[in-house]
């Protein structure tokens, strides 16, 4: 019994010592990032107008800022692209869960996205969907890879 108890204690110490400090890991991703953002737009003009995805432009030297959130699994975003201001982070990946950012009558806007930190850069894919009468009438997509300043 004493040997089993000693083994359990040793295993517990092993797990505790191997646990990563997520606060330190997240803090390494915080700061300003600069680079190029590609913008695409989807437009649905209805039954007679057709629909399609169109390149809408490029933002050069665009800056996004990542700050600490209220806990080690949240970061604050200043993207200057979409309205969402926070994301959850796990490992090197952050996620903006799909949520409604504004609504008026039968129209509303949803935002969502993901991003990955790697070395001194962040790669991201953000979306904003405009829905009217439960039909997607327009969508914006912002993608890019930015480098830490």
CATH topology (fold) name: Porin
Structural class: alpha+beta
Q: Would you tell me the overall average pLDDT?
A: 85
Count of helical segments?
2
Q: Helicity level, as a percent range?
A: 10-25%
Biggest sheet, strands in spatial order? 1-2-3-4-5-6-7-8
- Please indicate the percent range of residues in DSSP E strands (runs of 2 or more): over 45%
* CA-CA gap between termini: 57 Å
The largest sheet, given as strand count, sense and whether it forms a barrel, is: 8 strands, antiparallel, barrel
In the CATH scheme, the class would be Mainly Beta
Low-confidence segments: 7-22
Shape: globular
Total beta-strand segments: 8
Q: What Rg do the Cα atoms give?
A: 21 Å
Count of spatially separate domains: 1
CATH 2nd-level architecture: Beta Barrel
List the secondary-structure elements in sequence, H or E.
HHEEEEEEEE
Describe, in plain words, how this protein is organized in 3D:
By secondary structure, the chain is an alpha+beta fold. It has a single domain, classed as Porin (Beta Barrel), CATH 2.40.160. The chain has helices spanning 2-18, 22-27, and strands at 31-44, 51-68, 74-78, 86-90, 93-104, 107-118, 121-132, 135-148. The protein has an eight-stranded antiparallel β-barrel with strand order 1-2-3-4-5-6-7-8. Strand 3 (74-78) and strand 4 form a beta hairpin. The longest helix has 17 residues, at 2-18. It starts with a helix and ends with a strand. Residues 7-22 have low confidence and may be disordered.
